[in-house]
Every structure is written in C-alpha cells, then in structure tokens.
## 1
Amino acid sequence: MGERELYQPLTQHDKVTVVLYRVGIALATLIIAAAAYMSVTGPLLQGLVSANSLATVLILALYGAVGLSVFFIHLYVNKFHRTLKNLYYLSIAALALLFILGKGDIFGVLISRAYGPLLLLPLAGCLGFITAKEAFCFRLTEGYLIALLLPLYLLVIALGTMTARSASYGLVFIAALLVIFSLRKVFMPLHYDIGDKSAYT
C-alpha cells in the first residue's frame, strides 16, 4: 500500500520527479477530457483547424503526457517499471505504424480502419497501469475502473458494435473518471509517492 509517512527528507530530484509524474497524469486527463468534449460538441477550434488535425495533435500530446508519467513514476520494483517502459515503447511503435498508415493523419486511421483503435491498446495499457497502481496504493477505486474500461472501450469500438453517440458518451464517462482520479491524486503531499526508499536498496 502507499506510504503516507515521511521516512526521509525529500531531495530536489524526488520533488522534481514526483511533480513531473503528476503533471503527466494531469495533462493526460485534460487531453482526454478535451477529446471527450470534441466528440460530443465538435472541434474546439472549428473553422481554424480541421477536426482530424486537431484530434491528431491531441493524440500526440497524449503520448507525451503518458510518457512523462511512465518515465517519472516511482516504482521501486525494477521488473514492474521495466515492463511499463517496454509497454510504452510498444505504444510508440504502434504510433509510428498509425503515422505511416495514415500518412500523417493518425486520427483518420483510428476512425476508418477496424484495427485502428487496437493500435492504441499499448498506450491505454500504460495509463491503466498507472491508474491501477495508484488505486492499489491509495485506494483510488476509480483507478481500477479506468484500467479496465480503457482497453475494453477500444476493443468494443474496434468490433464496430458501438454507435458514434455511444462512443462519445463512453469517452465522456472515462474522462469524468480521470478527472476524479486526477483531482484526488495530484494534490497529495509529494512524499506519498516516495515512501521508504531504504526498503528497496
């Protein structure tokens, strides 16, 4: 479980890495919330930029935000952190494939090819790993729900059994869970993410 005691003074490195980790979570939440808003109401910048271009930018930003959390998460069990990083590298390979197949139009592939949403599964796995880890450590139950719903949502979309309206509402629900999760996580004292480092040396 997560440690709430301050076992040792935090170093500058501890503080910076925890802040970067939480910034990644907050940015991922904002990006998914913006995508959910767009899916319901249309492009945020309608008339200034195409929906596909804006969605592609949001997807790229989401990869960056999740990557920030992946590389700055405090996981002292090395095999877990290595697994998480390898999953993120796989997600980057999937992103490259999306980019090649869509000739730069990543979102176009996601909405026009049945396999498109499946290529987001590694990224969803990374974000789900992070939310599940926090759920386990700090009893943030919505973290478990996010970890289960994200891949399930992508699988259902890939199967073509969800209407566009249902897909929009599904994304809104996931975004709402992420907002709750982020508000509960990012304002925790910084030392909660550090714990007792001596136990792992």
## 2
Amino acid sequence: MQHDLLHIQGRPYMLVPLHEYRQIMAAQGSEAKDLPSELLDRIFAREVHPVKILRAHRGLTQEELAASASLSRPYLTEIETGRKEGSITAIKAIAAALNVPPGLLL
C-alpha cells in the first residue's frame, strides 16, 4: 500500500484511502458497528453533516431527535447545517439519542 504525504501550511498530512481510514477508526472503536459501510462512507466524506445523515438513517425527524436529545429543534438545525458546531454536551446528547459514539459526529 502506498500513501501520499502532503504538506499543507508546513505541516505533513497522510492521504489514506477511505476504506483504510474506516478500518483504522473501527480498530480504535470509534465507529458504530451497526452502520452500513455506505452510510459510513457518506459520513466520512463530510458532504452533509453526520447528524443529518444519521438522523435520516434512524428515521427521525428533527423534532424527534431534538426532543430525544433535550435540545431545541432550531439549535439542532443549526448544527446540521453547520451554522453552529454544537457544544460538547449537545454532541454527546445527540450521539446518545442516535446510539453512536460522539466522535462519529465530530
């Protein structure tokens, strides 16, 4: 396996194929084991916020997830759209409501 080394602003970064990255993360216990690989690919691609992807996968509305995480729906919307990062407490509550590790949402 060959990996590319990139330098961005003087700092080295390793370019790793997505499937290898997922294997590394799984070995560290940071992925939810019950999630399909296609879903994990979408989460790691970061084209859409992970909260939105997982909420839809679990079949929840924003209102339902917000209530389950004890958050307001507008705050959840701001997290899903990237307008707010969400506090650590909020991310932990969302992760618990979605039954995933908090690291998957960050």
## 3
Amino acid sequence: MYKLNVTSHFSGAHLLKGYDGACKRLHGHNWKIRVGIECDRTDEIGLAIDFKDIKLHLNAILGELDHTMLNEHPAFKECNPTSENIAKYFYDRLKEELKHDHCRIADIEVWESDTSSVVYWE
C-alpha cells in the first residue's frame, strides 16, 4: 500500500456565525491543505498516481476559494466555513474528481494556523 501526499494553500476570509468569541467577526487565514491518497499498487513504470493529476484537481478547488469570502461560497451557505467543514468539502470534491480503480482519498488535513489543524477521513 502507498500513501501519497500533496500540500498546497489558499487565503480567504470568513466569520463564524453563532460563535461566542472573536471569530464571529470577519477575519482571514492562510489555510494549508494536505491531500492524502492511498493506492494499492503502482503502474508499469512505478507510479501509484501522478502527482500532476492530484495537483490539477486540488488547484481547481483552491482557485475557487482563494481570496474569497468563504461564507459566500455555495458550499458554506448552510454551514460555517470552519476548518472541519473545509476539510470535508475538499474530501467530498476530490473523492468524486480523483477516481482511480486502485487509489482513494485517504484523508484531508487543513491547517488554519501553523499550530492548529484538523484531519478528515471516512
């Protein structure tokens, strides 16, 4: 079994509705995103999945969110754009977009700061 990781980042603003603290006010983060993909084998040249393919799909999602007000994104109209919900959003999107017969999304890790992250997996 192989686990491939690709990490990137985006910047965005949000506020947390219903939160009793400073995060209820508009603020921003430089989120770091790590995608973990498990593959059970490699191809004839030794690749489990091309990093280029992972980055292509990851960058498309990052482009939708980068430098936006996350609360205005359709995915976060009904829920707060917390790190937890952002991780699930990336997981769900990439699970659909990165379909390979021998690979699957293992987990998504989202950092909202250098010292705080959340990991989502199913």
## 4
Amino acid sequence: MTRTLAIGDIHGCSFALRTMLNEIQPQPEDTVIVLGDYIDRGPDSCGVIDLLLEWRTKCKLVTLMGNHEQMMLTAIEEPGDWQFWMQFGGRQTLESYGGTKEDVPADHWEFIRTLEPYFETEHHFFVHANYEPRVALDRQTDHYRYWLHVEHPPLPHISGKRAIVGHTAQRSGEVLSYENLICIDTFCHGTGWLTALEVETERIWQVNKSGKRRLNGPKVVPPAKY
C-alpha cells in the first residue's frame, strides 16, 4: 500500500530522524513530507540535512520551508539579522558544520534555498506553521506559512482539506488534533518527541532526541479536541 507520511519539526536531532526513518521504512512509492525546521537548537543540523539528501534517493521526499530555514537565509542575505538568527539556534547550526557559514557545503545551501512553501494531496495540505483560512494556498503570506502559531480552535481552510502542520510546539509530547488540523511538532529538541504521521490511517510513531522509541509503539492520533 502506498503511504503518505508526515514528519514534524526535527531541529538538529539527527539521532531521532535516523531512528524514525528506520522505524517507518519509507518505500520508493511512499510520499514523505517533512514539515520544516530541520536546523537550529539541536546539536546536528548538518547531519539532519545529510540524511534528508540521502533519503531523497529512496522515496518521494517533499521538504517544506520552516521559519528557521527562512531565518538562516535572511541572516546570510541581510547581515543586520545575523544576531537574531544566532539567538534562536543559529549558533548550534553553524557549530554542527565547523563554526562558520563558509563551512556549509553548497548542496546544503541549495537544499535550503529550494524548500517548498506547502504541499497538498486530495484531502490534506501540509505547511510548516499555519494558514489564512479564506486565502488560497498559493497566495498565503510567509507570516502565516512559517511564523503564526496555531490558534484554538483553528478555523477550516476554504479548500475543505485538513491541514497537517508543525511549528506550534506541543511540550506535552502529544499530537494536537482538531477536525480540520493536526499539529505534529512534539518538542523533539526539548523533552518531547519527533513524530511521524501516516496520513491515511492516522497512525503515529514517536522517537526522542536520543533515538529512543516511545513505549507502546505506534498508536493512532487521539480524537479531535474542541
């Protein structure tokens, strides 16, 4: 069976990502959507991007832009924003490469510059942070796509599709589920988990930053909260 899988915010946690990919075992016919924020805060942003570049050759990998990737690009292009990026994890990212922006290899810059703003399937759409409910997906602003946290309860999008998002960290480690939105940022770089969601079945897997699987194995997204 062909699967559509989404993976939440990784933030430099390469052990978690490697374990997760080995756990869910994406096949060549599967589509894996990674929701952005590959870098910053965690110890191995370089290793995360290396893994994603490797897995591009093994399955249909869709990599979305997150606000941290946008911060990195802006810091390089606008020196006045450099300290802003450093404050929110840029220092850890550069240390994972060797210490300077010159240590970042060309294929990693290309990876970051070519990230997608969103992705959609017949019944779902995927974006890093949030969406403006009454605006078409291809006309959303960067503020909504990459920066705005989920509001409670989120309004449905005019497309009628269910949103799969990250960005709004669930420090409890539990997936946030509404009828029209699922948030799978479960605070991996902190005390939570990296979450993967099989969209068709709503089955989830979780691994912490040390690469330890959550006890009791895969489970199903909890009922919608209102």
